Amino acid sequence: MAAILGKKLGMTQIFTQDGLRLSVTAIEAGPCPILEIKEKHLKLGFDLAKETSLKKPASGYFKKLNVAGRKFVREVPKDSTGQYQIGQELKADVFKEGDFVDISGVSIGKGFQGGMKRWHWQGGPQTHGSTSHRRAGSIGSSSTPGRVWKGHHLPGHMGNHRTTVQNLKVAKVDPENNILLIKGAVPGHKNSYVIIRKAKKK
Question: Looking at the DSSP assignment, which residues form a beta bridge with residue 29?
Fold first, then answer.
C-alpha cells in the first residue's frame, strides 16, 4: 500500500480540460527518507529539522542512519511488492492522477463550544418568553435511570483530534515540486502535517 508524509499548504482552485472548476487542497508530499524497514511498515521522516532543535537521542538516531534530521516521523504501511533501502527517498510520484487516497491529520481546534455548535442541537424556543435558547436543558430522567447516560452530547472541547477523510481523489501531481493537489478538503490547518495512504475502500 503506497503511503507518504506531507504538509497541508492550503486550498486553491484548478480547471479541468472540460472547463470544470475544482476546489483542491495543495499538499507538499515528500521527499521522505526511509528510516526503518519492518515486516509490514516503513518508518518515514519528513520536513528538515535544524540540528540545534533536535534532542540528543533523536540527533544520534539520525546520525547513525546518516540521514538529515526530520521534524515529523511516522510509520506507514509498506507495499509488499516494492524494493526499499534505508535512506531511499519517497516523493510525490508514488501517487498518480486519478488515484484515491485516505488522508489523516489533526483537525482544527475550536476550543470550548456549546452544544448547538458542537453537536448541531436545534435549540430552544425563540419566542413566547422563553429564556432557554442555546442551553443544554434537561439531560436525564429522575428515577430511571437516575443518572446521565455515558456519551451524552454536551458542551465541551471541540476539534483538535486525529481524523481521517477517506476516498479523496488525486486531481494533479507535480513531481518536480513534490506537490499533490487533492480534490476536496483535508483535515488540519495550514502547515499541519498529514499522512497520505492509498485508499482502503477503493
Answer: 6
Domains of the chain and any CATH numbers: 3-109+161-198 (2.40.30.10), 112-158 (no CATH)
User: Quick one: cell of 38?
Assistant: 519492518
* E-state strands within the chain: 3-15, 21-29, 32-37, 41-48, 70-77, 89-90, 100-106, 111-113, 156-158, 162-174, 179-183, 193-198
Q: Give the residue carrying C-alpha cell 511516522.
A: 74
- Phi/psi region, residue 56 (left: phi>0; alpha: psi -120 to 50; beta: rest), is alpha
Residue 173 one-letter amino acid: V
| Residues of the chain where predicted confidence (pLDDT) is lower than 70 | 1
Predicted structure pTM score: 0.85
**Per-residue pLDDT tens digits for 142-177:** 888 888 989 999 999 999 999 999 999 999 999 999
Question: Within 13 Å of residue 188, how many CA atoms lie on the same side as its CB?
Answer: 23
Cell of 115: 452544544
State the alpha helices, DSSP H only, in 66-199: 115-119
